[in-house]
Amino acid sequence: MKKIKITNNAPIILAFSLASLAALILHYLTGGKSTNLLFMSYHSSLASPLTYVRFFTHALGHAGWQHFLGNISMILLLGPMLEEKYGSKKILAIMLITAFTAGVANYILFPRVGIMGASGIVFAFIMLTSYTSFREGEIPITVILVALIFIGQEIWSGITVSDNVSNFSHILGGITGSVIGYRLNVKKKAEN
What we know:
single chain, 70% helix, Rhomboid-like fold, mainly alpha
């Protein structure tokens, strides 16, 4: 009988999930001070090096367990498949690009609003997953449906609901995932 062993099929996804968990624990241990210092992007002085760090690290911060579990469960569901398909380096790059894009856009467009959480990355992964069966010259109907449902829902929520959720970050994540998914798959087809 063959032994079953536990493997780490998605080291970037696991590391991100554990780092987000550590950030949340720090949040509770410091009464939110660590989150304000490191894990929330907001309009602060461009002379401060932490402003640039937070453009990325805001994705690790979460407001509470429900926020954390909602994002991390989706990342753990979608991330390993994507990391196996595209590789750890590309997934890390996608996560960094998505976090940076949301952090900078929020800084410029919404100077009175702070953002935190991995929901932009979740939406990037949702859109990226839609491209798994991509063929050049075609747009899968699933990409269109996912875009209409998820991005349309965020636009609608942004207009009609005031719940402190950064819908703009979700939309940017979805757009980032769509653009990267398209480019990765077109490039892959061109190489074959």
